[in-house]
Amino acid sequence: MIAGSTFRKPQLVRGKQLQFRDATVADAEFILGLRTDEKKGRYLSATTADVDTQRGWLTSYASDDSQVYFIICALDGTPVGTVRLYDQQDDSFCWGSWIKSDTAPRGFGVESTLMIYDFALQLGFRRSHFDVRQQNVSVIQFHERMGATRTGETELDYLFEMSNDAIVNALGKFRSSYLPDGAIVTM
Fold first, then answer.
1. Angle at which helices 108-122 and 137-146 pack, to 10 degrees?
2. In total, how many domains does the chain have?
3. Is residue 138 domain-resident?
4. Measured between alpha carbons, how far is 172 from 149 in angstroms, rounded to an integer?
5. 151-160 pLDDT, tens per residue?
6. Could you report the per-residue pLDDT of 49-60, keeping only the tens digit for each?
């Protein structure tokens, strides 16, 4: 375990075919391209198409210890997506801003999810909470197959939780195929 239930920005989190690195100002155009893509961004919170605004957000993020924003890359370093961990509530974390590019490798969803959960457990978190737009049926079904339970809803979203048992079960069920060595974290 790295620390006790607190966000830490590692240099790298490595999986079987993916790796996470901390987002930087240099990633602004890549992130904005994903977030403003009509198909990919339709279930995300609205984002202005201004790259300078995105750079400003990333500049502020660099000194923000309340979240971790990853660029998901193939092992050769090619960016293929994003994901963010935030909103710590005791031993629970929220995750979102999960977007994959058209060049993301097969198995991206399962491997990146397992990496998120394994990394969070290493940080001392035990549970996760998150929301998914009600119309995003395929992602809702994905999370439910992973073991998430619906805890409520808002006007736009369904609210979910992954208990510690659900996280451990998902890691156990899928680890051998998607993350055999676990999430290898370099701080």
1. 50
2. 1
3. yes
4. 18
5. 999 999 999 9
6. 889 999 999 999
